[in-house]
């Protein structure tokens, strides 16, 4: 595969988000509409400029959300809509799909959104879902595998056995992401976290302690994808979509994810090497998943992620800043689409607008989370079932 | 055990998986073996994912395997599991299947601190209700 035909042909032109809370008090669709209207406005567009809509769900949809939002917003002509079952693995595939819809000429401006009342409603729904024990679940749920930590924990246990990775390594990642969230006004968790607090926190599902687990969030984010040509004359400086991949494959063992298959295609598609990436917003429902994703995306040699995070390479001034907003662990969990809000902010000329800096970026890490000289951002979903590269204009 | 009180989820079987669960009721661990290339497969499906032959037989597997990885559940997302905490959910590669049959189950009969990747285990059948039997595993 040579460079992808979509390379630099489309751009993210608008972003929007709601507050991230534990009780939104409104319907999921209301959250979706709020974030969408903000993203459309941020792009300098009107609702009727949107002619494509994309979202995704985990396992089973709660409703015909894409169709319902299209009607709720009063979009008169939608030329293509897409609602995928890819779950948290599909965040980058959602944006990549929008890019393909635009580059094909089917749509002009595509709205991508993810909305959920995951804390206030999702926790109840999880117990309800455990009553459906069909398909692959008939081989797991009767044995008590119900929680995402039980689903992904096996990856961590296998990596620990094979490479000596430890809970203390996980602690370093959790603490660094918390430091980033502390300078993020919209982050749910902004209290300081120490290595000791992580190490003394209770087991939720071994090998994951409480502070290895992400937030559960009520909230929504949305973004707009437009053609690069159109984007030149829009309100904000565009953030270009370089390349993307999406799809699941088979790995050689629990200690690695689908990223080992997708990563080479991703970099080749953009005509770059892994070293050209300036910062990364990596799917992190549990500390370890972020760590294996970084290895599988060829940013860190396999098995060496423990020492890498202990050395602080993932900090804001490290060799590869990771989850500069605090990630799913500390900012909030909007199925990884919130990682795009962060990447776009970092790559716009004005930079991050919701840290604690007043005026120009100070790069004082007590206030400022703007990365220095950001050029190319790497993003991925769960198990790197999708990934994308974005670049600054 | 009070059979009426069993509150945990039970397998909802389908046309492809029913023979496996029937085997468990007979206290036999079985899987489909391809009649063309002789490879086992898991989970059950009507054709071979290795050679795409639709010709197969349900054959008895060895009763032993190795723990490939595991978690220890300390928080019950489903309340019926509360009394079992902490309990082990493991993935077990069944011996003699050319690494094609890896099942998810519980390791029982030892403390959770003793469970290791690579641990040898043997199947035991737990008749949880009059209708359902679950294959679980004990250290050899």
From N to C, what is the helix and strand string of chain A?
EHEHEHEHHHHEEEHEHEHHHHEE
pLDDT < 50 runs, ≥5 residues of chain A:
none
In total, the number of strands of chain B is 8
Specify the number of helices of chain B.
1
Mean pLDDT of chain A: 96
Tell me the fraction of residues in β-strands of chain A, as a range. Answer: 15-25%
**How large is the radius of gyration of chain B?**
16 Å
Question: In whole angstroms, how far apart are the ends of chain A?
Answer: 25 Å
Helix content class of chain B: under 10%
Outline type of chain A? globular
> Termini separation of chain B (Å)?
25 Å
Let me know the number of strands of chain A: 11
Task: Give me the secondary-structure category of chain A.
Answer: alpha/beta
Unreliable sequence segments of chain B: none
Overall, the morphology of chain B is: globular
Which strand order do you get reading across the main beta sheet of chain B? 6-5-4-7-8
Question: Hey, which two chains have the biggest interface?
Answer: A-B, 36 and 39 residues
Query: What summary fits the major beta sheet of chain B?
Result: 5 strands, antiparallel
| Helical coverage of chain A, percent range | 25-40%
One letter per element, helices H and strands E, the order of chain B comes to HEEEEEEEE
How would you describe the overall organization of this protein?
- The complex is a heterodimer of chains A (393) and B (140).
- Chain A is an alpha/beta fold.
- Chain A has 13 helices and eleven strands.
- Chain A has helices at 28-42, 65-73, 91-103, 118-129, 148-163, 167-181, 195-200, 228-231, 259-270, 287-296, 305-310, 327-330, 338-347, and strands at residues 10-17, 52-56, 80-84, 109-117, 203-206, 208-209, 218-227, 239-246, 279-282, 376-380, 386-392.
- Chain A has a nine-stranded mixed beta sheet with strand order 3-2-4-7-1-8-11-10-9, sandwiched between helices.
- In chain A, a hairpin with a 1-residue loop joins strand 5 (203-206) and strand 6.
- Chain A is globular, with a radius of gyration of 20 Å.
- The two termini of chain A are 25 Å apart.
- By secondary structure, chain B is mainly beta.
- Chain B contains one helix and eight strands; from the N terminus they run H-E-E-E-E-E-E-E-E.
- Chain B has one helix at 18-25; strands at 30-34, 40-41, 56-60, 64-73, 87-94, 102-107, 120-126, 134-139.
- Chain B has a five-stranded antiparallel beta sheet with strand order 6-5-4-7-8.
- Chain B is globular and about 45 Å long.
- Chain A binds chain B through residues 126-127, 130-136, 138-147, 149-150, 153-155, 157-158, 161, 202-208, 253-254, and chain B through 8-14, 17, 43, 68-79, 81, 84, 86-87, 89, 91, 103-106, 112, 116-118, 128, 132, 134, 136.
- Strand 5 of chain A pairs antiparallel with strand 4 of chain B.
């Amino acid at each position: 595969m040579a460079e992808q035909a979509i390379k630099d042909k489309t751009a993210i032109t608008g972003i929007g988000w709601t507050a991230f809370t534990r009780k939104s008090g409104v319907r999921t669709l209301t959250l979706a509409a709020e974030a969408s209207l903000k993203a459309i406005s941020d792009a300098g567009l009107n609702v009727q400029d949107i002619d494509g809509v994309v979202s995704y769900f985990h396992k089973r949809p709660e409703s015909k959300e894409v169709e319902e939002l299209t009607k709720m917003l009063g979009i008169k002509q939608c030329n293509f809509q897409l609602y995928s079952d890819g779950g948290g693995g599909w965040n980058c595939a959602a944006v990549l799909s929008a890019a393909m819809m635009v580059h094909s000429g089917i749509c002009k401006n595509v709205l991508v959104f993810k909305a959920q009342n995951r804390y206030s409603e999702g926790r109840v729904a999880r117990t309800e879902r455990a009553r459906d024990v069909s398909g692959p679940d008939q081989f797991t749920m009767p044995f008590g595998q119900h929680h995402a930590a039980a689903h992904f924990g096996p990856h961590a246990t296998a990596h620990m056995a094979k490479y000596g990775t430890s809970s203390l390594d996980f602690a370093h990642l959790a603490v660094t992401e918390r430091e980033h969230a502390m300078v993020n006004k919209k982050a749910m968790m902004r209290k300081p976290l120490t290595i000791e607090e992580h190490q003394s926190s209770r087991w939720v599902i071994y090998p994951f302690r409480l502070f290895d687990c992400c937030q559960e969030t009520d909230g929504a984010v949305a973004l707009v994808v437009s053609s690069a040509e159109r984007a030149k004359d829009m309100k904000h400086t565009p953030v270009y979509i370089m390349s993307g991949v999406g799809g699941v494959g088979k790995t050689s063992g629990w200690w690695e994810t689908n990223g080992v298959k997708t990563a080479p295609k991703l970099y080749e598609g953009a005509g770059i090497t892994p070293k050209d990436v300036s910062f990364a917003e990596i799917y992190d429902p549990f500390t370890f998943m972020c760590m294996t994703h970084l290895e599988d995306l060829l940013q860190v040699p396999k098995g060496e992620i423990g020492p890498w995070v202990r050395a602080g390479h993932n900090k804001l001034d490290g060799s590869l800043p990771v989850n500069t907003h605090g990630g799913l662990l500390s900012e909030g969990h909007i199925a990884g689409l919130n990682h795009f809000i962060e990447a776009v902010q970092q790559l716009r000329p004005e930079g991050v607008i919701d840290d604690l800096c007043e005026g120009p970026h100070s790069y004082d890490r007590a206030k400022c989370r703007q990365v220095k000289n950001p050029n190319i951002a790497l993003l991925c979903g769960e198990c790197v079932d999708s990934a994308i590269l974005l670049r600054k204009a | 055990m009070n059979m009426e009180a069993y509150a945990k989820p039970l397998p909802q079987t389908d046309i492809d998986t029913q023979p496996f669960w029937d085997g468990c009721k007979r206290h036999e661990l079985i899987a489909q073996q391809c009649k063309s290339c002789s490879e086992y497969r898991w989970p059950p499906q009507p054709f071979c994912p290795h050679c795409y032959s639709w010709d197969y037989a349900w054959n008895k597997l060895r009763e032993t395997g190795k723990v490939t990885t595991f978690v220890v559940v300390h928080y019950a997302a489903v309340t019926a599991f509360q009394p079992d905490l902490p309990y082990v959910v493991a993935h077990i590669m069944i011996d003699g299947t050319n690494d094609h049959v890896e099942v998810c189950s519980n390791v029982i009969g030892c403390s959770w601190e003793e469970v290791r990747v690579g641990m040898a285990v043997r199947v035991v059948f737990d008749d949880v209700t009059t209708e359902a039997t679950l294959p679980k595993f004990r250290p050899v």
